[in-house]
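Dear colleagues,

I hope this message finds you well. In preparation for our joint manuscript, I am sending the Sterol desaturase family protein (Pseudoalteromonas spongiae) sequence together with its predicted structure, so that both groups work from identical material. I would be grateful if you could confirm receipt.
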Amino acid sequence: MLEIFSTSLSELPRYFSDANKRIFYLYLLSAVALALPVYFAATKQRTTLGFFKFLFPKSVWLAKSAKQDYALWVVNKLIKALMFGPIVLTMAPIAIALSDALEWLFGRTEPLALAKWQVITIFTFLLFIIDDLTRFLLHYALHKIPFLWEFHKVHHSAKVLTPFTIYRSHPVESYLYACRMAIVQGTAVGIGYYLFADAISMFDVLGANVFVFLFNVFGANLRHSHIWLSWGDKLEGVFISPAQHQIHHSDNPKHFDTNLGSALAIWDRMTGTLIKASEVGKISIGVGQYDCSHDSLFAIYSKPFLESAKSLKLSAKKGINKIVPNKSKVTNDKKPSI
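The corresponding structure tokens are as follows:
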């Protein structure tokens, strides 16, 4: 166990050098570059020190909520190493099963006669679309299904936003996202193998899907920040801007369950959950009336289990009442005399 802890902790600094991690150093630098025009627009007295204070206000980065995020980044890494390995889904069996299913349904076919760059482009785009759609669907479920919301509420209990808020999640939610990723990769590889055989590969930048790389370069870290960056109405109908995701974290009930998409806004447009930055004034961060006071790491890890159990019990009770609407009356009536 000590070896697992040691290995897991030694991997944390690599998050800054891995293009598949949100806090990869190039993504952080691009966020700083995108914050610069926001700073210029916000103040007339522009200095290097002023920009630094604009980026790193103590009220945000040293807030209790932010400190919890830093701790969760470390603790969740250890929990994942200890628990997820043996029980998480893996990509290979999903890919094989899907490829075999497609062959059974449609028969064995020759690989499509396309140029290699065309195959790579199609596969890269397919992987991105499936990934973004399933992120939206799982995120939608986390908001709309009461017992799942109790776990996702941990993320929304943040009172301030920093790039490390991406790691503010309950292990149950992290496990669901890990399984989702296996399904995404297995589905893309299964379809790709059926259509193109073993010619499939991906356009990448430093090992990350090119679309994911671009998403992260264009301000992904500002989504969890105090810096308001909008893409404008037209672009925000297609892509989720950092400001739109901050609206998603608003404690205003009008904004609950909105802007659930990751990169693409089209899923929110289809479900009527899209709000553009121009439609919203000043916001504050939190879960509003749903706040369950995640004031400690113990509460963050334990309360979702307690609250989700209550939610399931309530749902079961409602279901029974629908099936037997007069149950309470029947049980309260006296037995008939003989």
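For the figure legend, we might mention the following. The chain has one domain: 19-319. Residues 19-319 form one domain.

With kind regards,
E.M.
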